[in-house]
Give the backbone structure.
Amino acid sequence: HCSNVVLTVTDFATQEQLAAVGLVDRWQLSGLYEGRPLPEQSQWQSGEMPPRVWLFRMPLLAEMRATRVPLDELVRHVVVHEIGHHFGFSDEDM
């Protein structure tokens, strides 16, 4: 169910990505899901970009330094959270 999800790592979210989730400070966003969640997908849809999970490297590194949680654990947590959105779960559900 995740074979078409693209994973992208970049330093920071764009201003548009921050605005989409109601944030201004680029240090506050460590991950993001963009796309149509599975429950909303249809076999008849076409022409859309594949779903994408974004990881933002600099906020993740800052969180690692601040919390002393190992980077692999932070990345795993963020990826699982964003894939949860792919399966249709809201932040409140998770």
Notes: DSSP finds three helices and three strands in the chain. The first helix runs from residue 15 to 20. The first strand starts at residue 6 and ends at 10.
